[in-house]
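Regression test case RT-17, inverse folding.

Input:
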């Protein structure tokens, strides 16, 4: 009956229109009820992502990660996850949540995790004022691959900048006013982020209360943000970003941040770890261009003032190699464990150095092939001349289903960032169904 009902309905409508005996008029009340925004939403996606990696056995980070395993030149990995998000709004009150449950099988066995990305309540007693309390991921900054001015946001992975990020527990207040004239909108947003046992412990190394204020202006059709952050431990930070459409298809953007105190861990040749503090300034400049053929170009340059230089990185790679050589001779992995357990393993994270260039080109429906979007992403380390190259192709021809095939090639000499990564090539297939 469910299959026959639409056919019968179409038949009745066709016969009625053919005879034309009565005019049909829409009931505006019924139409309004159908088009009225629902007070709730539930959605998400399920995803499978098998990955195959070819490893670089000469790299220092391969030696650090796999010295006590039987991994060879290639590893297989199988990932699966389900992400759910929903919101409920009733008058001035709103609730929002986003969570992720995933599992992975790799050379080390089976792994699983569950993460609450966001979960907060909101209160809007008037249209111009809103309060958010709970776990939230703030969308601050205008950069595509990096956001140095996003002081209360976890860093992106520039190879996957559109992935959702886990938020922090905070309280956010937002007041907005609109005007006529060159200054169209003003928004003021204070934020308070506590750090103590069990809450936001990965944000700061000690218990603290972080606060920030963001002033947003839409001035002469330019988006401007001015950000100031202060903590009880006397750490001050300043941020600024802007975005403007030069033409309908060209957008320019930039960000800058100055941190009065940044902690860096440094590993010397003997494996001794020391912590140093200093000020740091970072900035980003970028452009996005869409041409008439639906080709999108994104180019950005990023300077990370808190990053490491080539001499520091080389010294740390050499320390790992020495520790590995000592392990091979004696079987004692104490030095490797010391390096692995230290905070200095930040060298293994994404983009730990100072200066990077980013370029991405994507083409929608090339050669009139519908629902297909190929793209390529290139990230270049301007200090050690290493890079990553990521071609991909996405197919969305089936409703709610996305298929993406993506490869990653790491290119670099010894003691360069890409040259010392544990893998040199990776290929993955992502199958995602949204609901």
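Golden output:
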């Amino acid at each position: 009956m469910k299959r026959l009902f639409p056919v019968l309905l179409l038949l009745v409508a066709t016969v009625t229109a053919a005879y034309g005996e009565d005019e049909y008029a829409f009931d505006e009340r019924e139409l309004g009820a159908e088009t009225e925004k629902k007070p709730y939403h539930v959605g998400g996606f399920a995803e499978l992502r098998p990955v195959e990696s070819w490893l670089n056995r000469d790299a220092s980070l391969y030696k650090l990660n796999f010295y006590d395993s039987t991994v060879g030149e290639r590893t297989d990995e199988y990932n699966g996850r389900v992400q759910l998000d929903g919101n409920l709004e009733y008058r001035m009150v709103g609730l929002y949540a986003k969570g992720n449950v995933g599992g992975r099988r790799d050379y080390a066995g089976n792994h699983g995790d569950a993460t609450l990305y966001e979960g907060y309540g909101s209160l809007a007693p008037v249209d111009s004022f809103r309060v958010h309390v709970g776990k939230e991921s703030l969308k601050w900054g205008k950069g595509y691959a990096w956001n140095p001015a996003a002081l209360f946001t976890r860093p992106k992975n520039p190879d996957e900048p559109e992935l959702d990020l886990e938020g922090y527990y905070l309280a956010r207040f937002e007041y907005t006013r609109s005007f006529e004239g060159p200054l169209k909108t003003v928004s003021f947003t204070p934020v308070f982020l506590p750090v103590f046992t069990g809450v936001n412990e990965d944000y700061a190394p000690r218990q603290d209360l972080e606060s920030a204020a963001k002033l947003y202006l839409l001035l002469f059709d330019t988006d401007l943000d001015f950000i100031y952050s202060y903590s009880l431990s006397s750490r001050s930070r300043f941020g600024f970003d802007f975005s403007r459409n030069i033409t309908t298809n060209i957008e320019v953007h930039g960000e800058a941040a100055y941190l009065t105190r940044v902690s860096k861990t440094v590993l010397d040749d003997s494996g001794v770890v020391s912590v140093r503090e200093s000020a740091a300034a970072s900035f980003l400049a970028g452009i996005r261009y869409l041409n008439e053929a639906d080709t999108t170009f994104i180019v950005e340059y990023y300077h990370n003032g808190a990053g490491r230089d080539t001499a520091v990185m080389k010294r740390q790679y050499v320390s790992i190699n020495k520790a590995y050589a000592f392990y091979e001779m004696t079987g004692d992995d104490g030095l490797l464990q010391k390096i692995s357990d230290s905070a200095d393993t930040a060298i293994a994270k994404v983009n730990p150095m100072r200066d990077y260039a980013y370029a991405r080109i994507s083409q929608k429906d090339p050669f009139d092939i519908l629902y297909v979007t190929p793209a390529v992403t290139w990230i270049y380390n301007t200090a050690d001349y290493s890079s990553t190259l990521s071609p991909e192709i996405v197919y969305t021809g089936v409703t709610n289903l996305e298929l993406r095939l993506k490869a990653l090639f790491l290119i670099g000499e010894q003691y360069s960032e890409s040259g010392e990564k544990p893998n040199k090539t990776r290929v993955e297939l992502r199958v995602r169904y949204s609901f």
